[in-house]
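LOG
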Amino acid sequence: MNMPAEQRTENATEIREFDLKMQSLRQYLSLLGSSLDRYEYLKKSGAPDVVLYTEKGLINRQLMFLSKICSELIR
């Protein structure tokens, strides 16, 4: 059965948007992993509390963004 051209275009656009969100998700997961590694290193090396607090803030922002992307992908 042939699909109308408009429907095929919409499907292709949705797939592209999904791929971009997945790519973003992968990048942010990688950044989160780096931040967690850096936090662990800073904590072990005895970094000042203000540095640890700043890194925790960055990790929290990354987690919030990741949860937003995940909720969009679920829809």
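LOG (cont.) second protein
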Amino acid sequence: MTEPKLHQPKPTAAFPQVFCPRLEKTLPVDEHADCPFCFGKKPQIAKADHGDFCDFKPGSDPVNFGFPTDATRNRTA
């Protein structure tokens, strides 16, 4: 997935920026470190490989408390 080309500030060594798929915008690494979906350390986040630090999955309920996704609590009809 490629990042949208928005008018974003250029990252610098002091303030690197990484695209956030949840908010769909570029954020400083520090803000990713505060996100409940991001579990990596700042150096991992700065590499921008979301598989290494981000648990966000579009369209999924992030709070399932360990229930299987096909459990009756997830049925819509």
